[in-house]
Amino acid sequence: xxxxxxxxxxxxxxxxxxxxxxxxxxxxxxxxxxxxxxxxxxxxxxxxxxxxxxxxxxxxxxxxxxxxxxxxxxxxxxxxxxxxxxxxxxxxxxxxxxxxxxxxxxxxxxxxxxxxxxxxxxxxxxxxxxxxxxxxxxxxxxxxxxxxxxxxxxxxxxxxxxxxxxxxxxxxxxxxxxxxxxxxxxxxxxxxxxxxxxxxxxxxxxxxxxxxxxxxxxxxxxxxxxxxxxxxxxxxxxxxxxxxxxxxxxxxxxxxxxxxxxxxxxxxxxxxxxxxxxxxxxxxxxxxxxxxxxxxxxxxxxxxxxxxxxxxxxxxxxxxxxxxxxxxxxxxxxxxxxxxxxxxxxxxxxxxxxxxxxxxxxxxxxxxxxxxxxxxxxxxxxxxxxxxxxxxxxxxxxxxxxxxx
Length: 405
Ligand code: CTP
Description:
By secondary structure, this protein is of the alpha/beta class. The protein has helices spanning about 15-25, 40, 45-50, 70-75, 85-95, 100-105, 120-125, 125-135, 165-170, 175-185, 215-225, 255-265, 310-315, 335-345, 385-400; strands at about 5-10, 30-35, 80-85, 110-115, 140, 145-150, 155-160, 190-195, 200-205, 205-210, 230-235, 250, 270-275, 280-285, 305, 320-330, 350-355, 365-375, 375-385. The strands form 5 sheets. Strands 12-11-8-13-16-17-18-19 form an 8-stranded mixed sheet, sandwiched between helices. The chain starts with a strand and ends with a helix. The model has no long low-confidence stretch (mean pLDDT about 95). The site of cytidine-5'-triphosphate (CTP) has 13 residues, from α13 and β16.
């Protein structure tokens, strides 16, 4: 269990922070909510108290003997500010301490995550940009807002990212190596292309062939790369998780679509990660009408093999600087390593992330345990939530670019 302080700024997105409290408490964390006075005009103290199980105030004048404004920050393992309004970012950047939340931010020595939400004009204003840079330079993590519909009729960057996305970012901040990589923005200036999810091979207007991939590993990698400052494109097949904020998305359906999108994007990328689970076979013919039962009690499907996207990207010229593949195998230990090494050579990629998928492990799960290999052998092992594993995979890719392996 960790002690999480959730600071809530005065924006309409405060209602989404209620869902965030629930996600933390369900994961076993002890959450103290510190709203600003403006936040309490949107969502009242009883709601935060009921969700967190702790008393709530925005003032430094309550429980003075307890010195809450110092104790809260000092004892926190993680501080998350969501929504972080333009005003709150400005106050934090200026180092103000005129309410409980800003005082807590000044006394906290743990990772601090700001999740901005505001109107597009405010987000794009140079004053807000300067405040975000100041906070990042001081070691805080500032997420990019999501794009889309805002309050009223306007739309653009400024929406609060989905609570699931925010919670996943917070998960990565529990790992020291991942936090250091995020804070240093070590992928700034790099272009990262990630594929995620299972492709669908259409049989007829109502049926398709697919697989059990949830896309969470690829989503985690895209999110981690964006947090570390990379320009990220996610090539999205079917996935069961929200798209992280601050990344470009290209939608695909079949393995052939995936091959086209990746072939177009990969040559300009520094790092390509093929986390998608492409269907290996596609129906030899696609019926425009629904296929009917023919009364014989069965049917035989003719399938043809799809292109190997990863091998194609690795053999292309020009090609990305580092190409990362995954290997889902039903093996463990030395046998997993032997199959992986053989697959890395066959596909021609630079790094291969190996995992054992025996008995449905990995698919749809939030955790993963992997071995990362290059042509010389094992370069890293990582286990834990997929968002933490994602950071270790990106660090291995970055080390490959720097020639460190
Ligand atoms: N892959 C791909 N194109 C395909 C199939 C797989 O690019 N048509 C990629 C996956 O995205 C993954 C890697 O290849 O990064 C390995 O996937 P895996 O399913 O383990 O390998 P297969 O090629 O299916 O090999 P095998 O059938 O021998 O296990």
